[in-house]
Amino acid sequence: MLNLILATPSEICSQLGHRLREQRLAQSLTQTDLALRAGVSVGTIKNLESKGQSSLESLIRTVVALGLTDQLQTLFTLQTDSIAAMAQVAKAKRQRAPRRPHP
Description:
By secondary structure, this protein is mainly α.
């Protein structure tokens, strides 16, 4: 499985299309069945699975039709680690240098 962190946008699209195809096959659905459930054309499903290309709405319709809506729950959640919070943690780790003895 491709590590999406290091992938290009094109590779991510292709990987997501592949994963959706696997989900469809695991549910014993044909591309036509899925297209009917999702309310999109068969060509849309083919493009999504083979090239990872579709509109955002078509992608979401397909995800919903496959019963994978819960997978979207954590998508793009707000990251709570702000730069200020990270700086605060780094500051808390700093320690004073030991005092030098006076001659």
